[in-house]
Amino acid sequence: MLSLLESLHGSPKHPLKFLGHLLLYPEADSIVILDAHTLALVRVLAFWQAFPGLAHISDSISCISVDAGMKHIVAAMGSKIASWSLSGIQNDSWLVHSSLTLDRNVTTMDSCSGLLAVGLDRGLSVYTLILENDLPTWSRKWTMSSKYSPRLVRFAPSLMYIAATTDIDNTVRLHSTTSGRQTQVLPHPRPVINLSWRLSETSNRDDLILYTITADSVILLNTCKLHASIDLRSSVSYPIADQKDKPTSSVFWMDRQVLNHCLQHLLAQKSAEDNASLRRLQDVKEEGWDLFLRVLSDGTIVISAVANIDRRPPTLLRQFTFQQFSGPALTSPPSYLYLVPNNQTGCDISFITSSPLCSFQVSLRELFDGRPDSMKLIARAPEGFPTEQSRIVQFVRAPEGYGVGVIREKKVGEVWQLEQELSTLKHSGSWNAADHFLVLDHGRLFATYNNASSILTVHTTPCALTLELPVITSLFTVPSNDVHNAIMGITSDFYIVHIRILPANTLGAPVPLTLSLHYHDRLPGSSPSMVIPVDPMAWGINHPWVKHDALLSVSDSGELAFWVPEEAKSKSKKTVGNEVENLTNGTGADGDGFKKSERGWICTGRVKTSRSGITKVSCSSAKKTALVTPISEGEELTIWDSKESEFASGLEYRIIYSESINDLDWSSTPDMQSILAVGFLHHVDILCQQRMTYFDEGYSWTRCWRIDIGSDSIWLANGSLLVGAGNQMCLYGTPSNNKTKKDEMREETLFEFVARQNGPLEDYHPQILLQCLLWGTFLAEKLELVKEIIVNLAKDLEHKRIPSSCIPVEKFYRSEQTVSMSSHKKRNEEAFGRPLVKDLLETLEAENLPRLTPNEQAHLSVLIQTTLEVDEQRRSLDANGLRYLISMRSFYILNRRASSPSSPASHNCMQQKTSRRERLRYRDMIWAFHSESQDLLLSASSAACNGKMCWADARALGVPIWLSSIDSLVGSLDRNLRQIARNEYMANDTRDPTNCSLLYFALGKTKLVHGLWRQASWHKEQNVMLKFLSNDFTQSRWKTAALKNAFALLSKQRFEYAAAFFLLGSSLKDAVNVCIKQLGDFQLAIAIARIVEQSNEGPILTSILNETVLPTAFREGNRWLASWAFWLLHRRDLSVRILVDLARTLDKPIAEVGESNYDDPSLALLFSQLRGKTLQAAKGSYEISGRLEFNFVLQIARVFCRMGCHILALDLVRSWRFERPASIIDLNDSRDSGPPLSPSASRRSFFSDQPRHHLRHRSSMMIDMDISSYPTTRAASPDGTDPSRKGPEPIQEEPDLMARKAGLGNLMKSAKQDVKVPEFDMNAFF
């Protein structure tokens, strides 16, 4: 998804260290670990990981050492030493191993086999690693003080000696490792810059052979004394050595272990050949020559050899030039050169040089043959720059994302340009001593501002541009229609300064530039707590319908306001030129010398977050805002959407982090899908949007990637992310060669991943199938479409094709589909059936579909199986019944799958948690409540429980909620409660009567319970209960006794049994209170109340609905449950209104109102059903303004898009019918009444003037309100007062709402005529 494209980790200033194929060197306060062959960044180890208190200091690591045997890295900073160990199954994890604090600063170190030699300020110490109880500690072996500070220390291969050099003389001193005693002194003519011990391969004793390299590039061979010297004159031929200007050079020992490893592979492969090249390799191997490589300033490479080193006496040494040639690879002598084995081939080696840091692949055979092309450059690290050692404080980006500025400590920094083709960064400039900094025009220009002088400087060539400004607190750039980006600044009193970069004249090009102050004003309204720029990363996306914000203001109360500059009136070129000239000359300015423009700012939206103490804000031009607020648990990150309407608060995501958030930065895909980078001290998390779904609950944001490095980050163009860690930078993105790879080999980019998580779904996706089954004026229309999709999916899988979307868009539209539904139906019935479904389900169990998570594929199988069952029963069920049946089938099958241990694998998709659900959602229960096939649904529910429905099953299916009519209540519920009570009794082998007493007592079956106690001989309470239940509980004495027993059972926390005794004592109110408060089961309370009261209007049931169900629904924001409660309370106007308008639904306030949840498209489906179902519901729908209903439909369409059902969103806005009431018009006036005042005035209506629609809906509408008490629709009679006298000014209402109320009056009038209610007539009084 995101690959490391480039790492700017600074050029090494110290000798390099190696651990296997890893290259290490210190850089500032970190250790950089690279791949030795490719120079690719592997890891950065920060010193503060071992010492967290040093996280923000500016000290640097002085030296590092590597223990190859134990895979340890040791680093020193000042007097502190930290150690890391390489661990993990694949040796890819670095952990802090141990730490050590000394009393003096460390100058150099060397570690080997658990020993650590430490050169101190005027001293030398040796420590031993002790591993006891899995706790590594360093124990000091010895320490010695001296007059010098060691500069280099090296253990001998046998660990018997330590060689040390100093800065005060040219002497190499040897110390005993066991005691620290100085054993030998080796004087040198020049300062020693490097030394290496040579391990003898032919002798078992500790032969002290030490190579030292002096400052004049002379290598010396030492045993007990100096035995050989290899200088420039002895290495090269006489013509070069006799030159007047002798060339400079660097000399390096070619590690014999690395050479022997490569020679062994070469000789094994070329054993059959016999030529000079092979004999040369054999001589080096068999004779044991030590080779030395010298690089001259003109690029000449000289390889010298020393023979007979392992022979005795050492006077037999022979020195000669092995090879000499000129090559293009090395153009100058490097400071360091190392040999690294190439594990991939074994026949080649790698040369690592520094500085500059380069990696070469070397063919050893060609090198020994003196071929110039024997060295091939593999990788080259970027060149160093002056400010690379300073810590990164902040990144600043150009608006288009192709230029970036780096602000470092001490107010210095540099400018970089993003190369579009190579996706690399190119250094384009540096700056220093500035308080504010910004980047312009793809990084070609940059500007600085100094608070002391109040001067803005734009750095251009040949000379810089300057402009005096007021004291500003922030400076940023915004996209502009001009050639150059515009500059904006914000002052301490929140005035906004706008600076334009304009050509000095309009004649020809190129022309010099000039700065002009465009306007200087402030945001209207009260003073905000902060004003920040809107991140312009999405401005380059050319969507003409998107208007991007420029500024975001945050109030003390957490209200977000979004602003765009007011469009200026069109002016002639002459006027604009004079204005620029006046601004440049300072004329027309205010008292401070700055012009205040008459142009203002327009607020495009507000979001109330109710957050205070906001510390970090980042706003995207894609209408997303991230806020960081400190709380007691840590820091709260919230993401808000400013596009949301009044149907949502705008909160999309909330998470609490225990660690501090350092940085926030936005990016956007071409489809305006937002991506947020959240920087912490140790890592950067990337959050992206994801689809909303019916299948999983949770937020619509998730973490899609993590980068375990850095704390500051910024998005650049094309989805590249620049991460800063200390003084280093890492550029992540998509490799340039990724586009040329084949589809199966090409890595998915970040933008592609985010688009796949948010874009339109495939036709066979379960989300599409489910919504198609739920929606439609007639369910059969969408059912035929779902069947066709399933048939196409089965054909694709049968023919081993990748499933794709092959259904034309027009088929999703209801109007077009109805015409040809019969032909589709006939064709689908021929293919769709049990054999096809069975084969398809078996295929889905064995194969994983692309772009589906395991949870989604499980839902797909469920919906396919459910569609078959629905298709077989659709003739006996109505649409709402089929919707409930779909949900019920999915509920049981998914719970069964959640209990199964097997699960298909995920294919490059985010995992979604699948868990067992306790019950159907209230949405699914309400479909059954409004169904006219409840008897069939009750049978289907019982069959789903295998004919043994217990109370847990009835509660899970919502049976007490959706059995609507009292006839069904008394008949079906009575019959089913008896069956449920019997199943509760038979649920286990104990046959405990206490399990069913509550339900039987509610049914009035006291004698039946008494009979069950007769059979419970095993129960210890049998005798007591038999005696107690034999009494007559119609008498007040035994009712009181039952109530006393109920309170006693409450004290023993036997709540269900206590509720049963409350019923036995005829205290229904106490029984339902126990069900609600102690058992937490309001469905049980409702079932008992409806059975006992034998009514849907009983006082206890009404109390439950008003005091429990409605507060719960409002607290949870569950509009489905609230609508059901209002419907039962015969407030069907509120039942309809609450689906759309929560603010004006209730007459009395609710103590706690939770977050309004409009993220369910089925709300619109229920609203469209209920608004014309009864007269009272029609009254409620007419109290909703047309503008509000219009916004509600747009909100549901947005939800469809967030779910990936874009085609259904389009179908919704195409086919939604807005209710337009019949207007009050003058029948004598036939003129056109003019354009509509609101979106509702031009829409079709159930209650339109067309007779057919009007009669159809009027004939099917239920009259459920007292029409005679409703105000008359006739005009009021004159009251006899003075017509010229003005009364109180009427309350202004929305015109559309007034029209709806007028239409409601006409509707009432027609309803009155239907029920033959006479109107008021004054003649009746005479």
TrEMBL record:
Renumbered residue ranges of the record's region Disordered: 1228-1251, 1270-1297
One Pfam short name: Rav1p_C
Stated name of the protein: RAVE complex protein Rav1 C-terminal domain-containing protein
Biased composition (Polar residues): 1239-1248
An annotated GO cellular component: RAVE complex
GO biological process, one term: vacuolar acidification
RAVE complex protein Rav1 C-terminal domain segment(s): 596-1212
Coiled-coil portions: none
